[in-house]
């Protein structure tokens, strides 16, 4: 028998052993391990800034933080921040002045990023999102209480602390609010929950802000009561009180719905 190796076989073996980063990405996506595109980070920055503008945290005519400051705030790169700012400009929410910075328009067009549909359909869209959250998030809280690790608790506490500090200083806080809910979903150790929550975040938060603008209601205020709801939920998950966490999360979403639909009420 000849000891010569088949050149075609050698080529196949070499190809099989070569790193394939594109396959790694596909594997992550297929298994729900949370592969995140740069566009998703940019969308998060965009929605948080939109929220700050719509709720008056950054008032018309005021200057936005610099690109470097925003990159540090959101823990992203400057190119990601630029993508978000480009979208804000496209939606006629801000203007950039060379050498000076980026400013909220005197009359920002909060409708610029929404489809041209009637207000009733927008409200229905929001309520559908809240209905889905009512099904998903209480179960996330239940499983998180059973499965959470010390790292999961650290992530939740970090988001809560950032939320409280941002609220106290009047800074942008929306991403901390969402980050807390995302940390709970991650603590379930089921990445499908995380993916569902990600699919809801930007869609619902943008629509909610527009609806508040349409009914001319007062801007949402980060109240002590809302923060206390989060802290209560955190303590139940920490204590591994699964049923308590489920019930408090359901109550929290019901109260969020009530605050959203009642004009002039606080968030």
TrEMBL record:
Query: Which keywords has UniProt assigned to this entry?
Result: DNA-binding, Transcription, Transcription regulation
For this protein, the record's SMART domains field holds: FCD, HTH_GNTR
Q: Which InterPro entries match?
A: GntR_C, TF_FadR/GntR_C, Tscrpt_reg_HTH_GntR, WH-like_DNA-bd_sf, WH_DNA-bd_sf
Q: Which domain of life is it from?
A: Bacteria
Q: Which residues form the HTH gntR-type domain?
A: 39-107
Q: A Gene Ontology molecular-function term?
A: DNA binding
Alphabetized PROSITE patterns for the sequence = HTH_GNTR (PS50949)
Short name of one Pfam family:
GntR
Amino-acid biosynthesis in keyword set: no
The record ties this protein, via PANTHER family, to:
TRANSCRIPTIONAL REGULATOR, GNTR FAMILY, UXU OPERON TRANSCRIPTIONAL REGULATOR
The name this protein carries in UniProt is: GntR family transcriptional regulator
């Amino acid at each position: 028998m000849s000891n010569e190796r088949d050149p075609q076989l050698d080529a196949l073996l070499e190809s099989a052993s070569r790193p394939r980063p594109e396959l790694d990405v596909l594997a992550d996506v297929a298994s729900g391990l949370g592969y995140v595109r740069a566009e998703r980070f940019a969308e998060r920055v965009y929605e948080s800034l939109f929220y700050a503008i719509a709720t008056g945290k950054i008032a018309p005519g005021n200057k936005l933080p610099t690109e470097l400051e925003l990159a540090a705030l959101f823990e992203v790169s400057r190119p990601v921040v630029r993508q978000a700012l480009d979208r804000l400009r496209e939606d006629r929410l801000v203007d950039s002045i060379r050498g000076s910075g980026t400013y909220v328009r005197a009359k920002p067009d909060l409708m610029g990023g929404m489809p041209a549909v009637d207000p009733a359909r927008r409200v229905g869209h929001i309520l559908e999102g809240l209905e889905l959250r009512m099904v998903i998030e209480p179960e996330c809280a239940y499983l998180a209480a059973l499965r959470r690790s010390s790292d999961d608790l650290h992530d939740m506490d970090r988001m809560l602390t950032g939320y409280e500090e941002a609220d106290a200083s009047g800074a942008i806080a929306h991403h901390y609010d969402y980050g807390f809910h995302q940390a709970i979903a991650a603590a379930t150790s089921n990445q499908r929950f995380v993916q569902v929550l990600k699919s809801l975040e930007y869609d619902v938060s943008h629509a909610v802000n527009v609806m508040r603008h349409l009914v001319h209601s007062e801007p949402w205020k980060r109240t002590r009561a809302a923060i206390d709801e989060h802290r209560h939920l955190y303590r139940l998950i920490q204590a591994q009180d699964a049923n308590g966490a489920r019930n408090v999360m359901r109550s929290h979403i019901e109260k969020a719905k009530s605050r959203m639909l009642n004009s002039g009420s606080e968030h």
